[in-house]
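Hi R.,

As promised, here are both runs. First protein below:
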Amino acid sequence: MDYQDINAKTIDRWIEEGWEWGKPISHEVYVAATQGIWDVKLTPTKMVPHEWFGDLKGKKVLGLASGGGQQMPILTALGAECTVMDLSSKQVESERMVADREGYQITVIQGDMTKPLPFADNTFDLIFHPVSNCYVREVKPIWRECYRVLKQGGYLIAGVDHYINYIVDEEEKEIINHLPFDPLADEEQRKQLEREDAGIQFSHSLEEQITGQLEAGFTLLDLYEDTNGEGRLHDLNIPTYLVMRSVK
């Protein structure tokens, strides 16, 4: 089975079990957003600064691996014309459910971001990309595709993993893994993910995450860090995620 098939099935199961990133927003949260009261997250604890988005009215937004009915409904309520693409059938289902419930239009695509994105060049004003490329072995092609489908002057707002989560044990007390963490190349790392029911995940260096964007042609404008939101690393205030705002 292709590793992305494993990830799609794993995430669908997580959603059935109540996964935080698979819970659609409520009607009340959507209505509040239409009144200008809103926030969205890319990582566990910190909200994305409002000024990173600018005026979204009439802007074409791609939610890349951003299904689940959490962020795209908010951006739609702010006036954006949204398209969402996600590998998980459950995340796609939730996105359609919220749109039907609130009566707005959104383009919903179940797709794999390891393949060329199914959009023309220069299509979007903004790409919103929550932490998800940890489920993908090669991230640089994703940055190149993001650059291609963005308009000149368009923004990429992306959350990524720091890789620290992949070197520690499940209790986050000991360093047990070498880098890169690649379960397709390391049988013991694959078994570790199976024991933790974590799908197929990969560590990525900051070179891949940051320099990969620069090589694609982006200019990095701003960034911030975030923690896991729980666990020992969080208690020690050790950041494990990075959020970046870049422009084409």
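And here is the second one, sequence first, then its structure tokens:
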Amino acid sequence: MTIRRAAAGDAIPLSELSFRSKAYWGYDPQFMEACREDLTIRPEQIRSGAVYLLETDGGEIAGFYSLLPPGSVGLSAPPVAELDSLFIAPEYIGRGYGKRLWHHMLATAAELRLPRIRIHSDPHAEAFYAKMGAVRIGEIESTVFPDRKLPLMELVLAAL
């Protein structure tokens, strides 16, 4: 397995992976179609953020994450980065790949000297993030469904 920085040409396979990964949790087709735009990874997102993917020895993309630096999504001081995406292909869920990507994300955050990371979590992913050390600090409104609330989590990496 290899973790490498994503290239702009990876946008389509990463978008497809994020869609399949979200669907894994049993959301109905109408819900998934409404989420398609939010699950789409664009080449400019890859160029401007820290987007890394995990490839199997056979070259298959098993998962990826996208870390947005402070200020890129309008978050205020103190500087807070956002874990915009962390998705694992359904066929690889439960094999420790999410944990490998998480640890890589932590190393990336340390290199960028990020003091904290916010996560707008899917309810099904909240337990994973909590196990990794993030804490729920509230709720945030879904960007797709205004009446739907999502867990807002934070991971403090360094004292401010």
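A quick note on the second one: Helices lie at 11-23, 29-35, 43-48, 97-111, 126-131. Let me know what you think.

Best,
J.
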